[in-house]
Amino acid sequence: MIKAWKIIQSWLLTVTALAVMLVTLPSAPSLATEVDPFPRPAGLEADIAFWRNIFGSVTSEQALLHDNRHLGVVYETVSIPPNASSRTRGKVADRARGRYRKILNKLAKGKRTGLGAEEQRVLELWPADVTNSELRAAAKRIRFQQGLSDRYLAGLKRSGAWQPYIKEHLAEAGVPSGLAALPHVESSFNPEAHSHVGASGLWQFTRSTGRRFMEIDHVVDERRDPYRSSESAAKLLAYNYSILKSWPLAITAYNHGVGGMRRAVRKTGGEDFTAINREYSGRTFGFASRNFYLAFLAALEVQQNAEQYFGPVTRDKPRDDIIIKTTAYISAESWAEALGVGIKTLKFYNPALLSPVWDGTKHVPRGYSLRIPATLVDLNSDEILELIPAQEQFSSQTPDMYHKVRHGESLSVIAVRYDTSVTRLMDINNLRSRHRIRAGQTLRLPYAGAGMPILAGAETYTVRKGDSLSKIASRSSLTEAQLIQLNSLSNKDRIYAGQVLYLRQVPRKPVVVVSPPAPAPVQVVQIEAAKEPLSEEPVPPVAEPAQLDETIVPVQASLADSNDYSVASDKTIEVQAAETLGHYADWLGVRTQRLRDINELSFKKPVVVGRRVKLDFSKVSAEEFSYRRIAHHRDMQEAFFMKYRVVDTTEHKLKRGESVWVLTHREYNVPVWLVRQYNPDLDFGQVQPGTRIIFPRVEQVDQKARNRRSVADAS
Q1: CA triple 666-668-673, angle to 5 deg
Q2: CB burial class (10 A; 0-12, 13-18, 19+) of residue 119?
Q3: Whether 387 contacts 361, CB under 8 Å
Q4: CA 708, 712, 715: angle at the middle one, nearest 5?
Q5: Residue 673, number of CB atoms within 10 A of its CB
Q6: CB 121 within 8 A of CB 65
Q7: DSSP result, 341-354
Q8: What are the pLDDT digits (tens) for 160-200?
Q9: Is 0.85 surpassed by the pTM of this model?
Q10: Between the CA atoms of 398, 399, 403 and 409, what dihedral angle is there, to the nearest 10 degrees?
Q11: Cα angle, residue 161 at apex, residues 157 and 163 outer, rounded to 5°
Q12: Maximal CA-CA distance, the chain
C-alpha cells in the first residue's frame, strides 16, 4: 500500500513538473492573457455612456444638451416636435443653448451661494472644484445631439442581412469581428445613406478613399453596394492597423485619416487614447473624430446587449442571391426581359448601378457582378447569359457626350476618365483655369456616339487617329449617309479614335443617347471635405444623392493617405514622393533657386523623400501652400485610382544588393508614393538589407477598356 502511494506521489510530481514546464514555455499561448482589441479607457467611461444612451435610449424625437468635451455633463433632454424640419430643430437647439449659456456665465462670475434651483443643478453637474474659467469655456461648448435609438433599432434589424458576410471578410483581412458593428455608427446599416459632404453607403466611404478599392464613377458607385463596400472596409481597416498598430487609433483613423492620427500620436507623445482625446487639438480633429472610437464602443455594447435595450429583435436573414458576372455591356431593359423581373427589382438588388443605367442611357458594364434573388430564377449564371440575344450584347459602353461634375472631382481626374487631356477639356468648354470647376457644372466631352453590339458575322471598323467619316466611307464603298444610318450617328463630325463602326449589319436595338445642353461654366472651386457622421443634427439617410453645398471648403488628403503634408512651426516640410523643388517653387510663387539657396542645395541635386526642407512663405501663406500641395497629390492619386485598385499587399524582406526604387518600378510595378503610404516611417535614402517593406498589389479596373500602360508610369 505504501509502495503504491509512493508511485502515485512520484507520478503526481512528474505531471506537475511537466505542467509547470508547459506553462513557462515562451511558445505556449494562453487565451486568458489575450489582449482585448478594443480597450475601454477608464477616464472616458462617462463619454462611452453618453453614446450608449444615444444609441440605446434617446429617440430621434429627443436630443441631449451637453458639454462637447465632457460628455458626462448633460444639461437636459430636449423634446423635438415630430417630423420637425432642420430649421425647427435649429430653433429648439438655439433656445435651449441660450438658457444654459446664461446660467453658466452667471456661475463663471464666482457666484456659488443663493442660487436658484436650476443654477444649483447645473453647478452640481460639474466637479466641486470647477473653476470660473472652466465654466466660462463651457458656456461656449454647449452641444445639441439628436437621439438615434429608433434608427439604431432599424439598423439592428437590417444588420442581419449583411453582418455574416462582413465578419467573413473582416476575418480574411485579420480584422477583429467586433468591427462588424461599425456601420451602426456610420449609417445605421442603411446602404442608401449619404452625408452632406459626399460620403456614401453602409460604410460611408468618401469618393477619394473609396476609389482605392472600388469602382466609383457616373455609371457605377460600389460604395452603395453593401457587399463590395464591406470587402473594401475590411481592407481599409487592416491598412489603418498596419500603420498605427492600435485598434483605437485605427478605428479613429477611419474617420480622421491615418495621417491625422500619426500627427496626433507625434504631438501627444504616445498612443494613449485618453491623452489624444483630451489633449490633441489638430485643426481637423473635431467632435466627430474625437468621439468616433467611443461611439463605436457604445454601439458594439448596445448590439451585444440588444434585448436589454429593445426587447426581442428579429433580424433580417442573409440574402440568397445569384451573382452573374457580365461579359458584355447589356442594357437593364434586356436583363429585365431575359430574367422575367421588373426594373425596380433589379434596381433594389443592385444599388451600385446609378440612374444612367436605369434610364437607358448607359448599359450595365462588362465585368459587373449583377445580383438577382435566387427565388426568382431557376437557372445558373451561364444559362441566364444565354438568354440575352447576341444583338443586345455590346462590346463597349455608350460614350458620354457630357459630364456633370461631382463633389470632389478635378479636371485632371475627369480627363483621365474619358481618355482625353485637360487642355482639350478646357478648349471645348471655354475654361480659363484648370482649377476652377464646380459641383453640378456640365462639361462637354470631345466625342459622342452609341455603343456597338456584338453581332455574329458583323463587319466592323475601329476608328483610328486622323480618320474622318468620309475617308472610312470611301474605303468601305459606302456613302457617309449610309454610315450615319448604320451606326445611328447624330453628328458626322463626332467620331473618335477607338470607336467601333458598323460597315454592313445594323444593330437590332440601337442605343439613343439623349444629352442635355451644356450650360455656361461657373467658375467656383469645389473640393471634397472629410466626412462628419456624428453631426449635431444627423441628416436622415435617403435614396437619392444629397444636394451638395457649393461653398469652398478646406482641401483634405485621402483618409487612406498616411503621409504628412503639414508645415512645421520652423517653416519646414517633409518631402513626399512625386515632389520636386520645382513643385514647391510653383506652389509658393518663388524661384527654384531661392529654395536651393535657403536649403544649401547644389544645382540639379534632388530633394530626398522623407527628409525635411525649408520653404519661403513670403508670397504665399502656409495654409494656401498646403491647399495647393494636397490638391496636387489628390489629383495624382485619384487619376491613378481611376485605373487601378489595391487588391492585396506583399511583405518583402530586402536582400543585399536590392534597391527599393528598382523593386517598386520593375518587380511590383507600383508608384513610389503608394509604397510610401504603406511604409510611412521608412527612410528611402537609407534602407538596410533585412528591412521588411510592404508593397501594395494593384490590378487594372478593366484592362480591355482602359489603356495598357505601365502602372509605374503614373508615379
Answers
A1: 95
A2: middle
A3: no
A4: 125
A5: 21
A6: no
A7: --HHHHHHH-TTB-
A8: 999 999 999 999 999 999 999 999 999 999 999 988 878 99
A9: no
A10: 90
A11: 95
A12: 116
The DSSP bridge partners found for residue 690 are: none
Q: Give the chain's domains with CATH numbers.
A: 61-146 (no CATH), 155-310 (1.10.530.10), 459-506 (3.10.350.10), 572-638 (no CATH), 643-714 (3.10.350.10)
CB 581 within 8 A of CB 601: yes
C-alpha cell at 175: 480584422
Give the position of cell 448599359.
363
H or E element that contains 373: strand 369-373
How far apart CA 151 and CA 605 sit, in angstroms, is 59
The single residue listed with the C-alpha cell 489582449 is 35
pLDDT digits (tens, 9 = 90+) for 468-508: 888 888 777 778 887 887 776 766 676 776 677 777 644 43
Task: Report which DSSP code applies to 714.
Answer: G
Among 488, 527, 534, residue whose Cα is nearest residue 507: 488
How, if at all, do strands 612-614 and 572-574 pair? antiparallel
Cα gap 397→394, rounded to integer Å: 7
Report DSSP state, residue 26.
T
- Residue 634 Cα distances to 191, 262, 365, 558, 559, angstroms: 26, 19, 26, 7, 11
CB proximity list for 4: less than 8 A, separation 6 or greater: none
- Over the chain (715 residues), the average pLDDT of each successive run of 10 is 43 40 34 69 96 97 96 96 89 94 96 92 95 96 96 97 97 97 97 88 94 91 96 97 96 95 94 95 91 98 97 94 88 90 93 91 90 81 80 82 81 83 81 80 68 53 79 79 74 70 53 35 33 45 29 56 90 92 94 94 87 94 91 87 90 91 90 92 86 92 44 39
The residue assigned the cell 478605428 is 251
Residue 403 · residue 431 · CB < 8 Å: no
Q: Give which of 699, 668, 663, 709 is closest to 684, Cα–Cα.
A: 663
Gyration radius from the chain CA atoms: 30
pLDDT at 458: 53
CB–CB of 425/501 below 8 Å? no
Report which DSSP code applies to 33: G
Q: Three cell numbers at 361?
A: 442611357
Q: Tell me if 534 sits within 8 A of 287, measured CB to CB.
A: yes
CB contact at 8 A, 64 and 53: yes
User: How many Cβ atoms are within 10 Å of 616's Cβ, its own excluded?
Assistant: 18
Q: For residue range 39-54, what is the model confidence (pLDDT) as tens digits?
A: 999 999 999 999 999 9
pLDDT of residue 490: 62
